[in-house]
Amino acid sequence: VQLQASGGGLVQAGGSLRLSCVASGGTFSNYGMAWFRQAPGKERDVVATINWSGDIQYYRDPVKGRFTISRDNARSRVYLQMHSLKPEDTAVYFCAASQREFGTTKYDYIYWGQGTLVTVSS
User: DSSP code of 103?
Assistant: First the structure.
């Protein structure tokens, strides 16, 4: 499975961005999907995950109520809608695919996109 993320950019604090990730080379609905992020000098952490059908989501505490993960299996895409962005959300965001229906750690995911940079200015 190949993953291509897009939608990052520079935004002011309080603003919004929508990240998109398109998958190719596999049956998209067979993969649990997730967004991770990695800030400079820090570990790659999970942001949000979603199961095969899209009816189960997980959010890391710092983004709960601000970010929404969704997927469109017909278009082989997963999205991350981000609102009320904060400077601490600045990071490279990665989409990832798991052969499990649902996973909440980086060890559950074996396919990774190249990352898209989100910069939130104060």
Answer: -
